[in-house]
Design a protein that fits this description.
Structural class: alpha/beta
Mean pLDDT: 95
CATH superfamily: Aldolase class I
Radius of gyration: 20 Å
Strand order of the largest sheet: 3-4-5-8-9-10-11-12
Shape: globular
């Protein structure tokens, strides 16, 4: 390695491992674990000892911030998957306490992602049908890795009282997250789930206050963020996750940079502490040319920005901080491949490519354990 390359690598490491502050929360570095659905809770939505080890391994591996998979928020229409963990009652809250303690013992901060699946719900033990902004069948097929099959059902359009119920569910779940000891919550308004469904043209056909231009389609997200902030108080960290693509429609795009500017300007006015953008490749222009989504979020919101999307190369991750306005990078596949990714980068230890079989045929921890055991047996 040349002296120039060594200097560049050192500079990248300095960026990735510099401390940062989001709201009232200090994090020891700029490396986060992205939320990843692992459907490994009990059937009743309780976090388990295996999940404690899973999240704890990332803290031990040097990640400064860990965000949970999406947790369902109420006992109405929010649950999306079988064996999905929740924060819908006191018992589910208490099941998270040992996990929070474990992550904190490893030196990381822990954020609970709050999620309402809406029309993308594949299984819900509380209800037999689904709700969405409008009676529009979601595109695509249910995800087999989360135990789904076939088309999504046509949802029933939400009434105003059901919208209010959903917002109250987010707020109550956020309060429980604070009681469980989490350092903050992330409102899931991305990837095609309920709040993103309201934002999406062609999915949201409403003619009331929740449909129309981008500002109206964001109204439910605004109400949820305000309700969450009122529930947790001013010092608890609150973020919002944002995306264009969806789990059932990878190629969806907004109406160019002008609409992105409007969306992020509105989100920047909310009582929140950060935005979390996710794209397949975070550094790519959001609209064919020009700025990345993370850059647009930073430019128009003025908030702290977490960026997610194929950032498992250390140089690429550092460049998101230096050139795209991101303050923190969030790793998904890189973290699943190496729970100690930060330690490896610090010591110059090699990293491997992501093995897709970790998430197939099911994306749960039991399948991942079988894959790792098989590899160990082969290596002996």
């Amino acid at each position: 390695m040349t002296a120039t390359a060594i200097a560049a690598a050192d500079t990248a490491a300095e960026r990735l491992f510099a401390p940062f502050k989001i709201g009232a929360m200090d994090i020891p570095n700029r490396l986060a674990v992205a939320p990843m659905t692992r459907v490994s809770a009990t059937e009743t939505g309780y976090a388990t000892p295996r999940m404690r080890d899973y999240y704890g391994s990332f803290a031990d591996g040097g990640f400064g911030l860990i965000i949970t998979e999406g947790l369902y928020t109420d006992q109405a229409f929010s649950q999306g998957y079988l064996f999905q963990p929740g924060l819908s009652d006191a018992a589910q809250r208490d099941a998270w306490k040992p996990l929070v303690e474990r992550v904190h013992a490893g030196g990381a901060r822990f954020i609970a992602q709050l999620m309402h699946a809406g029309a993308l719900s594949q299984a819900n033990r509380f209800r037999g049908d689904t709700r969405g902004p409008s009676a529009v069948r979601p595109v695509g097929q249910q995800m087999a890795v989360y135990r789904g099959s076939g088309e999504y059902p046509v949802p029933t359009a939400m009434s105003k009282s059901e919208i209010d119920e959903a917002a109250s569910g987010f707020a109550a779940a956020a309060y429980r997250a604070r009681e469980a000891g989490f350092d903050g919550v992330e409102i899931h308004a991305a990837n095609g789930y309920l709040l993103d469904q309201f934002l999406t043209e062609g999915v949201n056909l409403r003619t009331d206050a929740y449909g129309g231009d981008a500002a109206a389609r964001l109204q439910i997200t605004i109400e949820v963020a305000e309700a969450v902030r009122a529930a947790v108080g001013p010092a608890f960290v609150v973020g919002v996750r944002s995306s264009q693509g969806k789990v059932n429609d990878f190629h969806h795009k907004w109406r160019g940079e002008e609409e992105a500017a409007q969306i992020y300007a509105l989100l920047g006015q909310l009582p929140i502490d950060y935005l979390h953008t996710t794209e397949f490749e975070a550094w790519q222009p959001a609209f064919g040319e020009g700025a990345s989504l993370a850059s647009l979020a930073k430019r128009h919101s003025g908030l702290a920005v977490l960026a997610n999307g194929s950032l498992h190369d250390p140089g690429r991750a550092a460049d998101m901080l230096a050139g795209h306005g991101a303050d923190v990078v969030a790793l998904g596949r890189g973290a699943l491949t190496h729970a100690d990714w930060p330690r490896r980068v610090q010591t110059g230890t090699a990293t491997k490519a992501f093995d897709q079989t970790i998430l197939a045929p099911l994306a749960d921890l039991a399948n991942a354990d079988r894959v790792h055991a098989a590899k160990q047996a082969t290596d002996v």
